[in-house]
Amino acid sequence: MRRYSGAGARQQQQTEAVADRVHRYRGVLLVLLAPVLLISFVLLLMPRAPASTSGGGLLAAGGRRWGPRAVEDGSNKYAVIFDAGSSGSRVHVYGFDENLDLVPIGKEIELFKQKKPGLSAYAKDPQEAAESLISLLEEAEKVVPAELRQQTPLRVGATAGLRALGTERSEEILQAVRELLRDKSSFKSQPDWVTVLDGSQEGAFQWVTINYLLGKLGKPYSNTVGVVDLGGGSVQMAYAISEKDAVKAPEVSDGEDSYVKKLLLKGTTYYLYVHSYLHYGLLAARAEILKAGEGNDYSECMLEGHHGKYSYGDNTFEASGSPSGASYTKCRALAAGFVNPNAATAKVKPSDFEENARRVCKLNVKDAQATYPDVSEENIPYLCIDLVYQYTLLVDGFGVDPYQDITLVKKVPYGDSHVEAAWPLGSAIELNRSLLLPPLDRGGNRQCFHRVPWSLLVCGLLGLALLRQAGRLVHRMWWRPRRLERALCAQGLRGTPYRLLAGDVRENARLIREACSRPLPPRCHDIAPRVAPFLTAGGRACLSWFGPVPRVIVADPGVAGDVLYSKFGHLEKPNFPALTRLLADGVAGLEGEKWVRHRRILNPAFHLEKLKVLMNLFSFIHSRRDPLFSDEVCCRRFPRAARRWAESVGSDGWCELDVWPELQNLTGDVISRTAFGTSYYLEGRRIFQLQAEQAERLVATIQKIIIPGYL
Questions:
Q1: Which residue of the set 172, 202, 318, 420 is catalytic?
Q2: In which residues is ATP bound (predicted)?
């Protein structure tokens, strides 16, 4: 005989127990696993950004967009961006292919047109400010196909110039621009697409533009380039930092832009340091430096030979050159007094402008025009002040080494063309469906999450709901019946195996039809094989299935008595399905307080005194002395039945009676008198007729729409 050690036996028992538990809860495990699989399927179906082979690449980011989406026409899409700066207004029109790489517009990679002055120069006439954009709008309409104009989004982003005017005046100008676009533009535009960009948005767009064109997106943050954009009214600085440094970023006051933005670009998370310095732009700096030298008839920063005044916003300053020429040293002192070196919180490495500033400041206007023919005539007088300020800003403001080389960029090479290095391209990229910047959270940071289309999200939620219902259905129709079947069979009950959905309903109906088709033997009182033929196969205690609900049929009086007399409370009333309760909700299905209330009403009819009367009435029918029931008491109790039966007696003294209706009438009269206190023939008959009619209708209805286990 083979023996097992105690440890081995325990290990085998433990293994079997684990396997049994897994088998027992396999339905629950499947229900839990199904949503995970569905969510994975939804994520698999999520739109993905196509791979880009060029340097421009693709930003695979998600979230809420600031503005509209660019429209697609086959493989091309367009976006029109107006840069309403302080030094002038510019329009950019970009085209993208299916990979969201830039495609040429005409002979150039983009349409770029500009016009001076900017919107802020029309602070007192908002209508004239709006009309200054008409010529640029017409240029944009020339390059966008006519059939796509109504679907091509147009954005107007005003920058530092309008921010410096204040909320009321800038909003008046923006409203005039909105009305102009509504009446005269063929592009798609909405009121909230014409707005003032905050400094952090402008800087972030600028950083995206440069790194997009250089093919740096998707690479580690250390491989990207930082950007310092010197505008007319402000200067923006943006560069990527490590996550460790991002945590150390200084806190900002309420209403101010956050220094660090979190972006997900081309699968890589960047922590972007962005800051905008208002009033530190080139045009604003001219005004501040000239303001610092007020009190003299001339400025030490203006070139010799220039006579005039300089206007910025609502202010006008003396801007005539000194007869002795500009002084680099004095102008440097004025610029150094304007720049606050403690205001900058980041370190960049620009190059040295000092040498050029010293040389330019020695020239007069005519010599400067000859030396720098590419500089516009209106900017020639300000060369000295501009170069001195740029040098002062980089060295004193940003704290850089005077001899560090930097790259000054007006346009960035892109393929065989050059693209304007400005924030509008970053804005146009953000307009496209697959090139998204994450939304701002409460702290000003941009959240990073994948955007799921609403339709896909709704379908996913509906799928989860349907999957949950399917799991519940499978549990009720298969796993639960199978577990109950194993448990009941383990107790020795025999019966038919469980069949999905219908159970034994069809089989029992077939057996009953076959039994009813065979006549009963003469004088046979064994009707069980006729009305319950399934008992023949299952025995006096068998298992049958009504849909997914098991039914234990007990035909043994002893077992039935034990069950009925049990005080353990294991025997519960049958649980009627909800659909059945709509058709019939009688006393047999009541539970709880309802059953207690109805039981109090019914109990008096079955008290001992009432039962004695009931038995006394039945005793009269058994105390007869002859077959004609001529007993006086009996006839007095049942005169109608006695007379009817007496009239049926033939000449030979015998008669044939249909016992079934007579017994119904007899017992009905007894129950009516006992329970209702009235005669069966007066009120009881009508009550029983209504009950019989209700039962017939219920049976007929169930036979038409029967759902085993549910109705």
A1: 202
A2: 232-236
What is the number of residues in the chain?
711
* Residue 694 near residue 531, CB atoms below 8 Å: no
Domain region containing 79? 71-275+407-439
Q: Which pLDDT tens digit goes with each residue over 98-144?
A: 777 888 888 888 888 999 888 888 888 999 989 999 999 999 999 99
Report the SS3 class of residue 263: strand
Both structure tokens of 257: 């832009």
Query: In this structure, are residues 162 and 120 in contact, taking their beta carbons and an 8 Å threshold?
Result: yes
d(CA 70, CA 88): 25
pLDDT reading at 362 higher than 80: no
In contact, 34 and 471? CB cutoff 8 Å: yes
List, as residue ranges, the binding site: 232-236
Same domain, 188 and 224: yes
Instruction: Say whether 406 sits in a helix, a strand or coil.
Output: coil
The C-alpha atoms of residue 99 and residue 96 are separated, in whole angstroms, by 7
pTM: 0.46
Expressed in percent and rounded to 5, the helix, strand and coil fractions of the chain are: 50, 15, 35
Residue 72 appears among annotated catalytic residues: no
Residues 128 and 229 in one domain: yes
Based on its alpha-carbon atoms, the radius of gyration of the chain, rounded to whole angstroms, reads: 48
**Based on the domain organization, do 262 and 203 belong to the same domain?**
yes
pLDDT averaged over every residue in the chain: 72
Q: Are residues 674 and 554 in the same domain?
A: no
- Round to whole Å and give the CA distance between 263 and 239: 12
Distance, C-alpha 488 to centroid of its chain: 46
Extract the tokens encoding 681. 């023939």
| Cα separations in angstroms, 127 against 113, 133, 368, 618, 627 | 21, 11, 37, 109, 120
Q: pLDDT tens, 171-228? A: 999 999 999 999 999 998 888 889 888 777 888 888 888 888 888 888 898 889 888 7
- Residue 359 belongs to a domain: yes
Q: Which residues are annotated as a binding site for ATP?
A: 232-236
